[in-house]
Amino acid sequence: MKIGIAGLGAIGLHVAQELDRGGIPGCELGGISARNADRAAEANATLSKPAPVYSLSELADHCDIVIETLPPQLFMDLAVPTIEAGKELIVLSASQLMGQQALLDRAAETGAKILIPSGAILGLDAIKGAAVGNLKSVVIETRKPVPGLAKAPYVIDNNIDLSNLTEPKLVLGGAVTDVAKVFPANVNVAVAVSLAGFGTDKTRMEVWADPSLEKNQHTVRVVSDSSDFTMTIQNRPTEENPATGKITALSVIAMLRQKTSVLQVGT
């Protein structure tokens, strides 16, 4: 399978390098798309075999699977042509699927598939299993170090004082649908949890400022008729981008490896 990668930040470049070294059996790097020619050249300089460079609209014409690791404003520039080509689209910007039922409907018509890897969150398999039964509540709690929240537009616009905190402070809470509108940062993980369960309207998200933390922490709490469970993850950041967890690229690689594996573990 030929894999295309749109976006060559910490996630996209890591996956490209893994493909380049043959670390994903049955897959090869079929093409890349970067924000400009210089960035594409920089990325290709790290590979043993430079990959063809295509525009976002061309990538699906040359690849079987396209991986999206783009700024939100570019999502549809890649998603639409990939769906029209009937290819598989691996989405990291899960929040951009909110309100895009027309895109999902078109994928059903063209035979395309939209895949969301686990990324920076955990337990999606468990939530999917519980959702086959009766989910009663799903809450995702995101706790961030105070410096990571102090300059957030929502905090500034609402004059929320985070200085001199001695204990965690709830900055914002509500349905994922509502939180995403005013606090887009870190919503991708909440949307992934929502789509695995019972949607963004019923899934609750809480954003906390926590002076005891040095890394972002996500906790998911689920109550259902089959099981109740709580899961917590703290992600270590990449060296290239402190806002990106190392595990995100690794989860994409794991998803690609599963494509050709004779043994598949998990739902």
Automatic annotation (TrEMBL):
Gene Ontology process terms (BP): NAD+ biosynthetic process
Pfam families assigned: Asp_DH_C, NAD_binding_3
Active-site residues, record numbering mapped to chain: 218
Residue runs in coiled coils: none
Lineage, uppermost ranks: Bacteria, Pseudomonadati, Pseudomonadota, Alphaproteobacteria, Rhodobacterales
Aspartate dehydrogenase domain ranges (all copies): 166-253
Enzyme Commission designation: 1.4.1.21
Domain Aspartate/homoserine dehydrogenase NAD-binding, first and last residues per copy: 7-117
Name of this chain's protein: L-aspartate dehydrogenase
Organism: Marivita geojedonensis
InterPro entries noted in UniProt: Asp/hSer_DH_NAD-bd (IPR005106), Asp_DH (IPR002811), Asp_DH_prok (IPR020626), L-Asp_DH (IPR011182), NAD(P)-bd_dom_sf (IPR036291)
Claim: NADP is one of the keywords in the record: yes
Keywords: NAD, NADP, Oxidoreductase, Pyridine nucleotide biosynthesis
Pathway of action: Cofactor biosynthesis; NAD(+) biosynthesis; iminoaspartate from L-aspartate (dehydrogenase route): step 1/1
Catalytic activity: L-aspartate + NADP(+) + H2O = oxaloacetate + NH4(+) + NADPH + H(+); L-aspartate + NAD(+) + H2O = oxaloacetate + NH4(+) + NADH + H(+)
UniProt keyword Oxidoreductase present: yes
Extra information: The iminoaspartate product is unstable in aqueous solution and can decompose to oxaloacetate and ammonia.
Function: Specifically catalyzes the NAD or NADP-dependent dehydrogenation of L-aspartate to iminoaspartate.
Family designation: Belongs to the L-aspartate dehydrogenase family.
GO MF term list: aspartate dehydrogenase [NAD(P)+] activity; NAD binding; NADP binding; oxidoreductase activity, acting on the CH-NH2 group of donors, NAD or NADP as acceptor
Binding site for NAD(+): 120, 188
